[in-house]
Write a structure and sequence with these properties.
Largest sheet: 6 strands, antiparallel
CATH topology of the largest domain: HIT family, subunit A
Number of strands: 15
Number of helices: 8
CATH superfamily of the largest domain: HIT-like
Structural class: alpha+beta
CATH class of the largest domain: Alpha Beta
Distance between the termini: 43 Å
Bound molecules: N7-methyl-guanosine-5'-monophosphate
Strand content: 25-35%
Radius of gyration: 22 Å
Strand order of the largest sheet: 8-9-10-12-11-13
Mean pLDDT: 87
CATH architecture of the largest domain: 2-Layer Sandwich
Helix content: 10-25%
Low-confidence stretches: 1-32
């Protein structure tokens, strides 16, 4: 399988952008100054040591392995593009190879091998992969937790404070060191500022897979637990600006965009998900996703809502926070 070297730069996935008619996103400007050495340039350098899991829709395979010449484990995700008319048109080429595999009366099945370059696999390489990331991509059952404000203060918050070191990729985006060609808009204000960037999950080629993240500049808001009425202007402005940008750049109306937080998030630096309604991987999940509009309403009604609320969420078995909660028998498994 050939993967163009520029598709696996540093901490980012594919950078290929294309836009033209209707359902494709604009081609980002090439990132010349920020170009880094690809962590892998030939896929035969990667050896899979473990299948970690697969997405429910069968489109992504999560693997663990090693990259020849590099120390430490890697996590590599292989993802097929969903099929759409634009891609089908590329297959109608004399370079496609077709082989009849079944014929019955008027019914024929062909094996079609499309021309090189029209059927790329989005390949996300994480190296060196921490144990936390390996766990994140390992398929395991999830269990429910009912987190009271006391449990948050005594177990979750200390856990968060111990994991603030995982945010390098966030600061790289905010401070202009990475992914600058994937930034869609920004607000530089110290208190109310944010950056809207394409999420790692989106290769910016198919509008129906649109997935962006708005990351606030402030570093003192870890999750929705910290939000109160003083944050309302920032959140409202962020939501409006990002929806307008998504409409302007990709033609997606706000009615087709899901806007939500995660609780628990993987990264405790406040960020908001913007996902296309038709993108399966962006579908909100009960026990994990919290609509931004609900959060805005709740804190408008009571400034301390999330400080005092009991929040119910699910957490993957083996997750470091789950291990902490388990010590106090707070993970419900039956
Ligand atoms: O669950 P949580 O709300 O923390 O979601 C974090 C989001 O950050 C996920 O949707 C990830 O796909 C996204 N993400 C994670 N990393 C490491 C990166 C990255 O390096 N760049 C970008 N653009 N998104 C990331």
């Amino acid at each position: 399988m050939g993967v163009p070297s520029q598709e696996v730069e540093g901490e980012m996935p594919a950078k290929k952008g294309r836009l033209d008619q209707g359902n494709h996103a604009p081609a980002p400007e090439p990132a010349s100054e920020n170009a880094v050495q690809p962590v892998i340039s030939n896929m035969s350098d990667y050896t899979i040591t473990e299948l970690l899991g697969q997405s429910d829709d069968g489109k992504v395979v999560f693997t663990r392995g090693v990259i020849s010449g590099l120390e430490g484990p890697a996590v590599v995700l292989f993802e097929t593009n969903s099929i759409n008319l634009e891609r089908v048109k590329l297959f109608l080429s004399e370079l496609s190879v077709v082989k009849l595999t079944m014929n019955n009366d008027i019914f024929n099945i062909f094996q079609l091998d499309p021309p090189t370059g029209t059927n790329s696999i989005k390949t996300t390489v994480i190296h060196p992969a921490t144990q936390k990331l390996i766990n994140k991509f390992t398929t395991k059952p999830s269990y429910f937790v009912t987190e009271t404000p006391q449990i948050y203060q005594t177990i979750t918050k200390p856990y968060i404070l111990n994991h603030l070191g995982d945010h390098k990729w966030v600061y790289n985006i905010l401070e202009g060191r990475a992914e600058q060609d994937r930034i869609l808009c920004k607000n530089e204000d110290e208190n109310e500022g944010f950056v809207l960037a394409a999420d790692l999950k989106w290769d910016m080629t198919t509008v129906e897979n649109m997935y962006c993240l708005a990351i606030v500049k402030r570093r003192d808001i870890y999750s929705i637990r910290d939000l109160n009425q003083s944050h309302l202007p920032m959140l409202r402005n962020l939501q409006e600006t990002c929806l307008a940008t998504i409409k302007e750049k990709f033609g997606i109306p706000r009615s087709l965009v899901r806007v939500y937080f995660h609780y628990q998030p993987a990264y405790y630096h406040l960020h908001i998900h913007f996902a296309h309604m038709r993108y399966q991987a962006g579908a909100p999940v009960i026990g994990k996703s919290v609509a931004v509009n609900d959060v805005l309403q709740n804190i408008a009604l009571s400034s301390e809502y999330y400080k005092n609320a009991t929040l119910v969420y699910y957490i993957k078995d083996g997750h470091a926070l789950s291990v902490e909660l388990d010590k106090h028998k707070l993970v419900v498994r039956e």
